[in-house]
Amino acid sequence: FGITSDENFVITTTNRKEITEDNFSELVQDGVTLYLLQSVDQMLLSATKERIDFLPHYDTLVKSGMYEYYASEGQNPLPFALAELIDNSLSATSRNTGVRSIQIKLLFDDSNGKPAVAVIDNGRGMTSKQLNNWAVYRLSKFTRQGDFESDHSGYVRPLPVPRSLNSDISYFGVGGKQAVFFVGQSARMISKPADSQDVHELVLSKEDF
């Protein structure tokens, strides 16, 4: 790697956790992506790419976007799907000390690709591992890795306010991935954790599945 004998360096995970003798066996596993840096908080000079490999549960293919899932009973199921995406943003912004900003944009300009629904918020963001876990359908039912982090870690459930967006819409389990694949064919999530300089991007595509 071209490191001189008098040069300091660290090896970290994509979540900027430094690899040490004590945590080596826990954090370094087959397929894990590592950074070789001069310091833990060093700015990355270029984008890095990490492939997420997992054996999908059959529900991933069978139930993602299933119409019956929303139990619409003759109603238009699209609001249910949009409510799921808003719910994620409500959770992410629940600890904001300032303004909670949640925007929904419908993009129909083909010059930027296919039409899309964009949900933008100023919440706490997700680490690369949390995005990884979001991609794995019902991860909690399967083997958890040593570096496991819940994609709802640190979640604070708001006080119940009937018929209000200040309360939970679904309280997790209804499923952001089903909502995404009901609305469209692919998902792109871009997230910057509040305490990190790194920006993480995840792409899920029904075509890839």
Automatic annotation (TrEMBL):
Q: Which PANTHER family match?
A: STRUCTURAL MAINTENANCE OF CHROMOSOMES FLEXIBLE HINGE DOMAIN-CONTAINING PROTEIN 1
Task: Return the CDD domains for the record.
Answer: HATPase_SMCHD1-like (cd16937)
Coding gene?
Smchd1
Question: What is the designated name of this protein?
Answer: SMHD1 protein
Indicate the segments annotated as coiled coil, or none if absent: none
InterPro entries noted in UniProt:
HATPase_C_sf, SMCHD1
Fetch the Pfam families from UniProt.
HATPase_c_3
Upper classification of the organism: Eukaryota, Metazoa, Chordata, Craniata, Vertebrata
Q: Name one GO biological process term.
A: double-strand break repair
Q: Where are the transmembrane segments?
A: none
